[in-house]
Specification:
Elements (H helix, E strand, L loop, with lengths): L3 H23 L12 H11 L4 H14 L3 H6 L2 H8 L5 H18 L7 H4 L7 H12 L8 H10 L9 H13 L9 H16 L17 H4 L16 E12 L4 E5 L10 E2 L2 E2 L2 H6 L3 H4 L3 E2 L3 E4 L3 E12 L1 H6 L6 E4 L1 H4 L6 H7 L1
Parallel strand pairs: 1-7
Antiparallel strand pairs: 1-4, 2-3, 2-8, 5-7, 6-7
The structure holds iron/sulfur cluster.
Length: 356
């Protein structure tokens, strides 16, 4: 059986040129973060697209750019405002890193993004794939991205049967991905190639039922030749899920204001404004004066799904008069927020849903 590196070397010229031509004629061209070499816009879209569908990102991307047209505007913003605009996209560490990254670009790099993947990775929240995307799209660096879509295309193309649960196998695949990059030094080739492999994974080489008949590299694809391209990629480790029960105190004043506390910067919903959170109902009751406990109303519990965890949320609602509200003393630092205030704050999605 030929060595995988030899396979990649043999495939490289035809693969990259077919992909570049296909992208030109059949790839995606109309997304708002395409057709630009502005690293701020490319970086913003790459961070938003992690774990989030294109359709959802479109709206947030436009809103962010309207409010923060440049990296300097984002760097100068208050973190509350950044988290507020991010609210609903989830994975809030992305928003916190986004803000810190913008500040570093301004403070450490004079407002200009570094131009190599290696330097880009020194910034907060920029991993190898995002760095490679920015460097290849904006600066034509010959560097490979390896996100989920790209892994699928490349493992099928080369019939790569290594288990991607192993980091050693991932490194081998990265080597293949680098070997397959275009050799020509044309300025347009790297951006088109990078976009092409992303487009192919997103629209043709999909995880279920890939459209191999429409694929520009079907004649090169060893996975297709094997008769079962969906066998690739191989990844054995399953995410271990856990369940975390939490009780939420939904304290509301007669005028509709709600009590919100800012969560610690790390952990679930880090940095967001939230109802007070307790490990269980007993802990919630213990935080309240006895005379208010009788006013609590249980709200039907529900499950909120995170990547590795299911949150089983049990809200308890407490509607208070203005006088009772003044007497409410909770351990955490918080305040009463009227509707006009909380609609622009960064709130966890399930809290926003409850309030809506
Ligand atoms: Fe994917 Fe099929 Fe194309 Fe192979 S031929 S890269 S399996 S779409």
């Amino acid at each position: 059986m030929p060595d995988l590196a030899d396979v990649a070397a043999a495939l490289a010229p035809a693969f990259s040129s077919k992909l570049v031509h296909w992208q030109e004629s059949h790839g995606r061209h109309s997304l708002p973060w395409q057709n630009t070499r502005d690293p701020y816009r490319v970086w913003l879209s790459e961070i938003m697209l992690q774990q989030t569908q294109v359709a959802t990102v479109l709206e947030y991307y436009a809103r962010f750019l309207k409010r923060f047209p440049t990296v300097a505007d984002l760097a100068a913003a208050r973190s509350d405002e950044v988290l507020g605009l991010w609210s609903g996209l989830g994975y809030y560490s992305r928003a916190r890193n986004l803000h810190r990254c913008a500040q570093d670009v301004v403070e450490l790099h004079g407002g200009q993004f570094p131009q190599t993947a290696e330097l880009l990775q020194t910034l907060p929240g920029i991993g190898p794939s995002t760095a490679a995307a920015v460097a290849s799209f904006c600066f034509s660096e010959r560097v490979a991205i390896l996100d989920g879509n790209v892994k699928r295309v490349l493992t099928r193309l080369t019939a790569f049967s290594g288990d991607l649960a192993s980091s050693a196998q991932e490194r081998i695949l990265l080597g293949l991905a680098t070997e397959l990059l275009p050799r020509r030094r044309l300025r347009e080739d790297m951006p088109r190639y990078t976009q092409g492999i992303m487009d192919l994974g997103a629209t043709i080489c999909t995880s279920r039922q890939p459209s191999c008949l429409l694929c520009p590299v079907q004649d090169l694809c060893r996975g297709l030749a094997s008769g079962a391209p969906e066998r690739f990629p191989v990844k054995t480790r399953k995410l271990k899920r856990s369940v975390l029960p939490l009780s939420l105190l939904w304290a509301e004043r007669a005028d509709g204001a709600v009590w919100l506390e800012r969560r610690a910067a790390t952990g679930i919903w880090g940095g967001l404004y939230c109802f007070p959170v307790f490990s269980d109902e007993d802990a919630l009751l213990a935080a309240l004066p006895a005379r208010l406990q009788g006013h609590l109303q249980a709200v039907p519990p529900f499950v909120h799904v995170l990547t590795h965890k299911d949150l089983r949320l049990s809200p308890m609602r407490l509607v208070l008069s203005a006088r009772q509200a003044m007497a409410l003393q909770l351990a955490g630092e918080g305040a009463w927020f009227g509707r006009a205030d909380w609609t622009v704050l960064g709130l966890p999605a399930p809290i926003r849903k409850l309030l809506a």
